[in-house]
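Late entry, evening session. Most of the bench is empty. Finally got around to the prediction I had been postponing all week. Sequence below, unchanged from the version circulated by S.P.
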Amino acid sequence: MKKTACIIFIIVLILSLAGCAAGEAKYDSAQAELVAQAGRELAADWLAENLPGGKVDRVTAYIVRSPLDGCEYLTDYAQGTYVYNGVTTWFNVNTVSGDMYFPAAPSVNAELAEMAEAMLFEKLGLRPENPVTGFTCSLQAPVAVGEKGRAVPGVEYFELGLPAGAEDMAAFLADPASRPALTVRQVLVMVGEDTDLSGWDMAAFSALEAACGMDFGLLKLTNGTQSATLEGDRAVFEEKATLWEDEKISLWGAVYRREESASGEVSECRFDPATDLTVEKTEGGYAYSMPNESWQYGFNLVASRDPGPCDVGTGEKTLWEEQQSGEFVLVFSRGGQRVELSGSGEFTLGGR
């Protein structure tokens, strides 16, 4: 309890020093009431046109806490409920643009995700049976509309459901220019081994986002030896290979990496196992050294069959996890994260 109270005190202190007490409102009640009233009128107008007989129930201004300073900010949105034929429905309305948003049923969200995934495959030129991991999507509602729109520090968009009129998901997705972008948080797509991914730079990823009408938090394409990743405002291409091997074990890691920022800055680095890695057999295992200090990436331990216990010098328990390829990769037994070694050290097989 004392530890928790101390952490809370530190957070409050940091926010106070930043010029904002935790939970401080950056607006007054009169401003909030104006937004609520505007939302009430817009919702009533929408009901009169689309659901005659519907009645606005209650409306409040949409208040958001900034993840950067902890303060509460008034937005251009109002939220509330209306009643139609005895059924109460939640809504959000942008009081600047007049756009209405409604929470979508789970079945609608599932349909939207299925169709959006199919669109992504189509734009990538892949078959639907290509393995994909982690595809979920939601709609972006802009935080601020126009030059005078109210912004919230650290918040780029809201997830408020689907806009009014989005009933036919196929038609809704078909024209990305006519709808807000879909947020896709994290996707891993496996492509064929003969697919060259080296052309996936920032321009290629940006064109894909525009064609799909999607905003990817993380999109990774991989064929086993190459990977191309869009993560936030950077694009990374990486090529991996076997760095060293003997009859029991091999070391697998990156030999080339290219990173590009949204501003167009590109950095490249290469790893030559012949000069950047030394491995020597010891009494109980192997000693390794990566003298190229500019190379910041490590390697994984791979075996064609389970070679038994392996100690990598970290004190954590490890185990060999079989892959779909039939190979075994060393992972930490807690969580299954791949063991990645770098710098210099020693690993032993079969215990000491």
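Two things to note before I forget:
Residues 1-18 have pLDDT under 50 and may be disordered.
The first strand starts at residue 55 and ends at 65.
Will write this up properly tomorrow.
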